Structure to design on (553 residues):
């Protein structure tokens, strides 16, 4: 194990028990626990500086507006975006991707135009593009992954053609853990004049993301996987794109002027943030990102990798499990299936041992189809997990085998 | 090991799930329906042959899913075969009450005892949907118009 010390004491929930056993939380890819500092920050703003943003002239409105706009700067810093106005707050990465689908691509797509996706996408990076297939006759072009789950930039490049209008790719698979060669994919797509959207829901948690270096055009993140609150996420988009995009939802905040017979729209990012935003949540997200950026992130990444390697090695003791996703470059996500035991039954036994994992199709049904499984069990690690968590997982799996056989 | 787990995964449940009774398609079904649990991706298809007297002469199912959903489908098929549609629906109501941990009356002693192997599900609220999938699917099949 590396010298990184997991910041467990920042998370009150990690000291609780479940069915009499100390909690082993291995469902981080679904949602991460929140450090105390995030909850404190939200509470402090709510109790000392809360009001609606942008419209009030009073003191509290100024405090909240400042906190909200400062959160935008924090997200920009976290993603290494050049400008804070390239950050649009959304309720999560799902909304961020839907925003790109609606405001950017929908007005530009015609029947027969192509959208390139990979088979390892989460439904949130599939369904918004299916909408364009249904409504405008767009064609979805799927890039396969190798049997070990790795994704090759050549394979993406091969599918990008003269009719491709967008490449939409998950930066890190929520099932396989595969890290996409994003920089390479962006370079190949740009060489053909095609913009790239990356779903950073998983990757931003574990990787240091530099959207400038990646040169990616759209990048979506979600707060609750980043040790922050639910209901808040963000879309990074280059100014070049944001400027030409039509509004998403209509309402307050996003307008320039409204009369009885015409409207003008606010400049980005306000144009895409109709209605009162999740103010406390944005502030909480900023606190989470500040907390995360204060960690030794390179150390945390190496630590998570060593935890994963340890768990992966110990799974070999259980030959009745088949691991899905062994790409050389991957995050700490361990998915497996068993021919005789259904993922839900395994997860139920694990739960009674205090081990929280995810079981099911993980909102990635095309990937399940690709690997010819109906569901998998998934253990996903965070920087607060410890080696003992992996041991408890293995022991609980042995009990599941004993019981379900 | 947790007692409620032993109760949930008792031998008769595992036996039903490993060796499901009446598994497979039915060429002369009068009713069929495919049920789907979008949360977990489990699927079950129920085939019924209902006679003119409203009696379920044959039932079979196909599907893929967890031990609970498969055992429940198998147990259900065993139990409703040879009964009238009205009796099958009464059984379903009883079963749903049972797995939700509610009082079950209106069922014969024998039926209650047979169904009781699934009673352990009530300790696992997240798994109630697995247990009821086959029954809801059978109901949808019966409610749908008869195939000509």
């Amino acid at each position: 194990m590396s010298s990184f010390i997991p910041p467990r004491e920042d998370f009150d929930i990690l000291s609780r028990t479940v069915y009499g056993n100390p909690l082993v939380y291995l469902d981080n890819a679904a949602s991460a626990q929140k450090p105390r500092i995030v909850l404190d920050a939200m509470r402090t703003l709510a109790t000392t500086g809360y009001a609606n943003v942008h419209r009030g002239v009073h003191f509290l409105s100024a405090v909240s507006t400042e906190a909200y706009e400062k959160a935008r700067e924090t997200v920009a810093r976290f993603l290494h975006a050049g400008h804070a106005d390239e950050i649009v707050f959304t309720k999560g990465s799902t909304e961020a991707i839907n925003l790109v689908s609606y405001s950017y691509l929908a007005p530009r797509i015609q029947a027969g135009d192509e959208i390139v996706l990979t088979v390892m996408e989460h439904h949130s990076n599939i369904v918004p593009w299916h909408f364009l297939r249904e409504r405008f006759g767009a064609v979805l072009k799927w890039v396969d992954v190798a049997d070990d789950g790795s994704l090759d930039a050549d394979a993406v490049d091969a599918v990008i053609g003269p009719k491709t209008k967008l490449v939409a790719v998950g930066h890190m698979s929520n099932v396989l853990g595969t890290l996409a060669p994003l920089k390479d994919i962006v370079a190949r797509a740009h060489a053909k004049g095609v913009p790239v959207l990356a779903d950073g829901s998983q990757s931003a948690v574990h990787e240091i993301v530099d959207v400038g270096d990646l040169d990616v055009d759209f990048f979506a993140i979600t707060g609750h996987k980043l040790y922050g609150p639910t209901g808040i996420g963000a879309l990074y988009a280059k100014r070049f794109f944001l400027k030409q995009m039509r509004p998403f939802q209509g309402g307050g905040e996003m307008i320039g002027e409204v009369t009885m017979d015409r409207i003008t729209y606010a400049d980005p990012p306000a144009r895409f943030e109709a209605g009162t935003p999740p103010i406390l949540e944005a502030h909480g997200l900023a606190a989470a990102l500040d907390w995360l950026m204060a960690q030794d992130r390179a150390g945390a990444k190496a630590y998570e990798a060593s935890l994963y390697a340890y768990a992966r090695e110990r799974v070999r003791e259980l030959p009745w499990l088949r691991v899905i996703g062994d790409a050389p470059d991957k995050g700490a996500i361990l998915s497996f299936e068993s021919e005789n035991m259904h993922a839900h039954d395994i997860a139920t036994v694990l739960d009674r041992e205090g081990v929280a994992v995810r079981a099911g199709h993980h909102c990635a049904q095309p990937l399940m189809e690709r690997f010819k499984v109906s569901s998998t069990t998934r253990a996903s690690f965070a920087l607060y997990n410890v080696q003992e968590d992996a041991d408890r997982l293995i022991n609980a799996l042995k009990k599941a085998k004993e019981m379900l056989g | 090991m947790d007692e409620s787990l032993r109760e949930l995964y008792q031998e008769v449940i595992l036996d039903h799930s490993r060796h499901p009774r009446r598994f497979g398609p039915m060429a002369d079904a009068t009713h069929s329906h495919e049920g789907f649990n979008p949360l977990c991706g489990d699927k079950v298809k129920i085939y019924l042959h209902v006679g003119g007297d409203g009696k379920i002469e044959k039932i079979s199912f196909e599907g893929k899913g967890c031990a609970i959903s498969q055992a429940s489908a198998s147990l259900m098929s065993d139990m409703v075969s040879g009964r009238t549609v009205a009796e099958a629906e009464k059984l379903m109501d009883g079963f749903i009450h049972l797995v939700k941990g509610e009082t079950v009356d209106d069922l014969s002693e024998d039926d209650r005892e047979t169904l009781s192997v699934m009673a352990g599900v009530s300790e696992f609220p997240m798994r109630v949907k697995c247990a009821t999938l086959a029954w809801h699917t059978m109901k949808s099949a019966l409610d749908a118009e008869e195939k000509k």
The mean pLDDT of chain A is 97. The first strand of chain A starts at residue 17 and ends at 18. Residues 89 and 234 of chain A are 4 Å apart (CA to CA).
